[in-house]
Amino acid sequence: MTNFTRTLSSTALILTIGLLSAGCETKAQTGALVGGAGGAAVGAGIGSMSHSRAGEGALIGGAVGTVGGYIVGNEMDKKDQRDRDRASDRATREGNYDSQRVTRAQVVQWNQQGVKDEIIIDRIQRSGAKLRSNDESALRNAGISEDVIRAMKDGSR
């Protein structure tokens, strides 16, 4: 390995570490930076083995890596946005408990999803949920807290 190739590889490595630590706003930007730096390093290595053309290899590898990294990062950004949209839609749908009474099944489901008791109690109180006679033992068996069960009892009065 020539001195020039070692210098170029070291520079590419330092640049990659620096870019990764700096961070970017989007995954597309991060992908372009990481892909470009990684592509340049790989291209330089391949180019140096092919008739000492490390510079040309670095340019080509950097360009290909930048485009590829951007495409992958952009798709990741799109997926993240779709996930946020779905979560928002789900929260909106689940938030419609004001117009309908909260059921025992909903309380159990929310508990399994990790919804905090305070939020479940608020939903119960705002909906005017009723606790039927067989609900109390079923809720206890499902691991629902006494505070939530008490809120459902209070709502039925």
Terminus-to-terminus distance: 83 Å
Give the C-alpha Rg.
28 Å
Shape: rod-shaped
| Class from helix and strand fractions | mainly alpha
How many domains make up the 3D coordinates? 2
pLDDT averaged over residues: 80
Would you list the SSEs in sequence order as H and E?
A: HHHHHHH
Instruction: Give the number of helices.
Output: 7
Assign a percent range to the helix content. Answer: over 70%
Q: Strand share of the residues?
A: under 5%
Number of strands: 0
The low-pLDDT segments are none
In words, what does this structure look like?
The protein has 157 residues and is an all-alpha fold. The chain has 2 domains: 3-77, no CATH class; 95-155, no CATH class. The protein is 77% helix and 0% strand. The protein has 7 helices and no strands. Helix 2 (27-49) packs antiparallel against helix 3 (54-94). The longest helix is centred in the middle third of the chain and has 41 residues, at 54-94. The chain is rod-shaped, with a radius of gyration of 28 Å. The mean pLDDT is 80.
Question: In brief, what are we looking at here?
Answer:
This protein has 157 residues and is mainly alpha-helical. The protein contains seven helices and no strands. The termini are far apart.
Task: From the structure above, extract its key features.
rod-shaped
SSE topology:
Layout (H helix, E strand, L loop, with lengths): L2 H20 L4 H23 L4 H41 L9 H9 L4 H11 L7 H7 L4 H10 L2
